[in-house]
Amino acid sequence: MQDVDLYQAVLGITSPWKVTRVDLALDAGQVDVYVEHAAKERFACPECGRSCSVYDHAPSRTWRHLDTCQYRTLLHASPPRVKCAEHGVKQASLPWSEAKSQFTLLFERFAIDVLQSTSVSKAARILGISWDEAWTIQRRAVRRGRARREAAPQSPRRVGVDEKSPGRGKEYFTVVCDLSEKTVEWVGDGRKSETLDTYWKKLTPEQLESIEAVAMDMSGPYFASTVRHVPNATAKIVYDRFHIMQHATKAVDQVRRDEQASLSRTWGKDSPLARSRYLWLYSEENVPARFEERFEKLKKSELRTAKAWGMKELLRGLWGSKNKRAASGFLTRFIRSARAMRFAPLSKLANMLASKRDNILTYFNVPATSTICEGLNPAIQQLKTRGRCYRNREN
Q1: Which option is the CATH number for 158-240+373-378: 3.30.2090.10, 1.10.150.110, 3.40.50.10800, 3.30.420.10?
Q2: pTM of the model
Q3: Which residues, in sequence order, are CB contacts of 14 under 8 Å at separation 6+?
Q4: Is the dihedral of CA 271, 276, 281, 286 positive or negative?
Q5: If I label 243, which of 32, 157, 316, 354 is the partner at 20 to 30 A Cα–Cα?
């Protein structure tokens, strides 16, 4: 197979285009591939699609393609310009690249995979392009995705709403996820009721009616916004188990803090709770092997923290209830037991669960959880640590 035939096949170049020449510069580590179209060929107007004759050619352009082994590969061609009766002289679309891009579609596809895995800076180094070039590829990908979504709008039936902070709590944004498709549907600045209002207002009455469940934390603003816009919202809002367990874990930690402050006055550094903060954050089955012996003794002790941790672990069983009636009984007993312990943080947790019980138990009508939104946290956290996208919130 000749080199031109090889690259014709590798590049996927089809009629009326053909590879006419391939130059290999070993010293420069570069392959140059030259492409031309057949004579007297007609091309579509990029505006209306009407078949037009070639008016002239733009100056020769170069596109970066995927490397050939270790050799940088460049594609060269003179784009034809057509004269449309309606739109005048326009440059014809090229099958290997988007308009105004200096990269082939195959290169951009690979670049997007790299960009999804690391920061713009690191992706640029891996790809051998500048930061601005990598950023431009990413921005085009975002715009294509948004255009596809707007061209074929879909309303999620099960929605997850969550707040995120790209910094250290100084600013927040609201993320709306499609829990069925596991995709981010919308992002808005802030975490107020008005923020979520903006998303609901984008949906038609029919789309709002079709919503089956809205999983969220126990945020008042999100609840209020959803009630304002989603029909029969109070029967569809599900307070997410992930966030409920976060509150339970915080209650355990506060009990530990209070107890440690008391014990340290007597025991000093020898307090049994010394250096145990992170142990109490583990669930029963997740305690690392190196801590098992110590934690086994701690959780069987008469420490208030051990009892609070046991209550937290007990609460996890709520979502294993067979049905809503069983769950309701479970929750009633848990609230009673938590209050009976007379630990202020547990009493506060019990009161919160009592006040929110209806929408905690909605889970057993429509088992939705925004854990999928939380599952997106690693990527969202990378927005902070890798510096991705924050020159433009749209991305």
Answers
A1: 3.30.420.10
A2: 0.69
A3: 95
A4: negative
A5: 157
